[in-house]
Amino acid sequence: LLDLWPQRGKMCLLFSSVKAEEECPLSCICARDSGTVTCRDGEHTELPGDIPVWATTLILRGNNISTLPGGAFSSNNGTELELTTLSLSHNGITVIEADAFTGLPRLHLLDLSHNPLVYISERAFHGLRELRSLYLNDSNRLHFSRGTIQCAFKRSDQYGP
């Protein structure tokens, strides 16, 4: 091209690596108007790290996520997520480590049902001050560490019966 237009000078193209706010995690469906990101029946073995900041509901269902590690939701490029609803049902989750839900201070509903849960750390729910509903349906093999449930529902205890 430069040979065709030698008088025009040089052209320089710059490409930005900044992620557009509207982008959706690979193999997920995003509905910005409802604030919902859905990643269903995929081959995810870990949580997507590029959840849009506008998301208030994240549905990860039918994947192959066996462990929720500490800080699983705090690696979103340093941005705190606005999630109020998180559904992690039917993922094959067996272990939830300490501080797994750090970075989700506004979370109201957490669905962990239909997972073969074996162990939940006593600090798994640390920082979930707004948690109102925790679903553990069909988790028959579940073993709670001492103090797990008191930690998860501490806020409701503050207001009495």
UniProtKB/TrEMBL annotation:
SMART domains registered for this protein in UniProt: LRR_TYP
Keywords: Leucine-rich repeat, Repeat, Signal
GO CC, alphabetical: extracellular matrix; extracellular space
SUPFAM superfamilies membership: L domain-like
InterPro entries: Dev_Immune_Receptor, Leu-rich_rpt, Leu-rich_rpt_typical-subtyp, LRR_dom_sf
Pfam families, sorted: LRR_8 (PF13855)
PROSITE patterns registered for this protein in UniProt: LRR
Highest taxon of the lineage: Eukaryota
Name of protein: LRRNT domain-containing protein
Higher taxonomy: Eukaryota, Metazoa, Chordata, Craniata, Vertebrata
